Amino acid sequence: DLQLKLLPQALKDVGYQTHAVGKWHLGFCSWDYTPTMRGFDTFYGYYTGSEDYNTHHRSHVFESCNTSNVDHCSDLDDAPGGKKEWLDLRNNKTPDRSQDGVYSTYMFASYIEDLLRTRNPEDPMFLYVPFQSVHAPLMVPEKYTEPFVHIKNSYRRTYLGMVSAMDEAVGRVVEALKITGHYDNSVIIFTTD
């Protein structure tokens, strides 16, 4: 409901800079539901679920598609098999085509490191980071599954590798908070859905 105030909107009201990096799952049927209209100064991430971790495309079979409004929420292209595929990676409202081949967990951690280097740690900030991991599809660079070769189930190995990659990214974010002077005045809440 657009009449309900979200946490970033309330924090902006009292002087916080607000940034969202990662998954946005609170609507994109019109611009009014997207992060930069719901209280975030910046947004770097994706709107839907189950996007490819490396290409950042989302595939879906549409039985019917009203494309008159699609330009604001996705870049639909015809794909084989009756599917529509689109790039589901945004820098604010603009599709970001520059990250093809970059694993999303690395990409989001790098974005946060850059963001923290460009701001004054004395200015209050709310940083919301819903990583894509560990959401389907199960995908991770092979180096993260190597410690789990003893596990017979390949899905479990991949899942554990994804958790390890996310853990590494969280460590990068915490280290960036320290290096840039943000850490000593931070509250970090780590949770899952």
UniProtKB/TrEMBL annotation:
Record-annotated Sulfatase N-terminal domain positions: 5-193
GO terms, molecular function: metal ion binding; sulfuric ester hydrolase activity
Keyword Calcium: yes
A Pfam family matched in the record: Sulfatase
InterPro entries linked to this entry: Alkaline_phosphatase_core_sf (IPR017850), ARSB (IPR047115), Sulfatase_CS (IPR024607), Sulfatase_N (IPR000917)
Cofactor: Ca(2+)
Keywords: Calcium, Glycoprotein, Hydrolase, Metal-binding
Gene3D superfamilies tied to this protein: Alkaline Phosphatase, subunit A (3.40.720.10)
Family: Belongs to the sulfatase family.
PANTHER family per the UniProt record, alphabetical: ARYLSULFATASE, ARYLSULFATASE B
Protein name, per record: Sulfatase N-terminal domain-containing protein
